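Re: the pair you flagged

First of the two:
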Amino acid sequence: MYLQVTNDFFINIRIRDIIDILIVAVVLYKLFTLIKETRAEQLIKGIGILLVLTKLSEWAELYTINWILANAMTVGTLAILIVFQPELRRGLEYIGRSRFLSKSLIEIRGENISKVVEEIVEATASLSRQKIGALMVLERQTGLNEVVETGTKIGGLVTSDLLINIFIPNTPLHDGAVIIKDDLIKAAACFLPLTDSSNVSKELGTRHRAAIGISERSDSLSIIVSEETGAISIAENGTISRYLDSKTLKQILLDMYKPKKEDQLFTRKWRTKDEENEE
C-alpha cells in the first residue's frame, strides 16, 4: 500500500510542484539564517513547544488546557507581529538590500574608496593614541536619516583632520556619534539606540553599547575608540570585535566597500598569474 502511494506521488508530481517546493525551501532557509543566534530563534522554539502541547492536550482530552492553549495561539498571532518587529524589519531590509535592487558604492559613484578608508583609519589611529573616545557609524544600504536628525548636520568630505576635531573633548560635537555615508560626514553628535542584549560584557560602556545597538537595527558598521584604554573596536550585525590594530581595521573597511564582482575579478586575475608562473 505504501509503495503504491509513493508511486502515485512521483507519477502525479509536476515541474511546477518541484519549483514550488524549492522556493519554499529557499525562503525557509533564508528565514532561518536571519533569525539564527537572535532572540527570534528562542521565541520560535517556545512557539513550537506550545504547538506540541496544544496537540498533546487535544489527544489527551484535557479540554480546559487545550482551550487555553488554543486561544493563546490565536491571540499570539498579533503578539508575534509585535515581538518579532525588529526581526521583521531586519528581514525586509535584507530584501531591500539585495543586489538586484541596488548597486555597490563603487559602481554608483566611481570614487576611490581607498582614500576614504585611509582618512578614517588615520583619524581612528590618532584618536586611539590620544585616548580620545570616538564613535563613527558607516552607513550602508539601510538609511539612518532618523539618527542623523538627532544630531548636527555636517555635509563635509571625510578627512582625518575633521574627524579628529569633532571628537576633541569639550567641543560642541564631541559627545555622540558621527554618521558617515560614502565619502561624506552626514552628521555629528547623533544619539544611537542602546542594545538590550544581555550577552554584552558589563565592562563595556555606553559608547560600545550604542555601537552594538545601531548595528542590530541596520547593516551599518560602527568604529569605536575607547576613552579609557584607546582600544579600537568595531560593531557589526549585533556583535563587537575588540582590540583591533590599524592594519586590521583598514582591511575590514576595504573588504566592506569592495563589490563582489571586483573581488571575483581579482581572484580570477590572481589565479591566472599563478598559472602563468607555474608554466
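Second of the two:
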Amino acid sequence: MDVVSLLPSATEIVYALGIEPVGVSHECDYPKAATEKPAVNRSRVDPTATSTEINEQVAAAEQNEGVYEIDRETLAALDPDVVISQGICDVCAVDEVRVRAAVDDLGIDAAVLTTDPHSLADVLTDIERIGDALDRTARAKELVATLEGRIDAVERGVDRSDRPDVAVLDWLDPVMVAGHWIPGMVDLAGGRYGLAERGARSRPREFETLRSYDPDIIVAAPCGFDIEQTTANSTDLTDREGWAELTAVRNGDVYVMDGNHYVNRPGPRLVDTLEFLAGLVQPDRFDAPPPDAAVAFETVTGSVQR
C-alpha cells in the first residue's frame, strides 16, 4: 500500500506502524529516513525568519493562496493509495480541503485520511484509525498499549499535592499559549495549566496576561522551532517589560524545549514530551529531559535574572 503523509506527526505514525511512505511533507524529518523521500508540498513562508517575520508572512499567505502549496506533479507521479492530511491548523500543514481537491483534480484513486487531534487520547485514537486504514491494526494496538503504559507510569508517579502553575508558549511574538493536547499533558505531568482549557486552540495573548498569571514554570516551545532557533528569538521574551519580575524567571524555572519535535507534533513522541514535562514540573520525581529536548533558558541565553 503506497502512502503519502503530508504532516510530520502522521509520518512518524506511519513509520511506527512499519510502513515506509512513498512521499512526505517538506517538514518531515523523523525518522531520518523520511528526509530521503520526495516532498509533496512546499511552504510559502521562510522558516528561518524571526518569530515576528514568520507571523507576518503567515498572515499575508492566509490572505492569498495559503501557507502551503501542493506539488501536484509529484503527487500524481507517486499515485498513492492513501494520503494523510490534517484539519487541526492551516499553519501547521496543508489542510484536507486542498488535499481532497488535488486528489480529485488529478484523478488519483486514493483515500484521504484526516487527523484532527486535540488531546493525547485523540492521538492514540489516530494511531489506531491509521493502523486500521493501512492494514496494521494489530501493530497499532500494540503501539497504543505501550504508549498507554508509559502515560500511566507518569500519572502514578506525580505528587498531586504540590502542583506548580505552568505556561507553555508555542509562539513568542505575539505570545501564544499552547493549547490542544498541552493543557491535559501538563495536568498529567503534575502541574496546573491556568491559561487554556483542555482541547482549546492555541491563541495569541497579551503579555500582561502572562504577567498576571505569573507561572512558576515557563516552557518556551515555539511551533516549528528547535532549541537553537528559539534561543535566537529569545529577546522576544527577555526584552518585554516585566519579564525579569516573573516568578519563573526569578527562580530560574524557565526552559527552552524543542517545539518542532516535541510539542507541536501530535504523534507517538508526545508521550516522550509528557515524560519530559514531568521532569521539568516535578524534578524530584522524574528524570530531567535530555539536552536535545529541553534545556534551562539561562543555559542558552544567559539572560535569566534571579
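Residues 16 and 143 are 8 Å apart (CA to CA).

-B.
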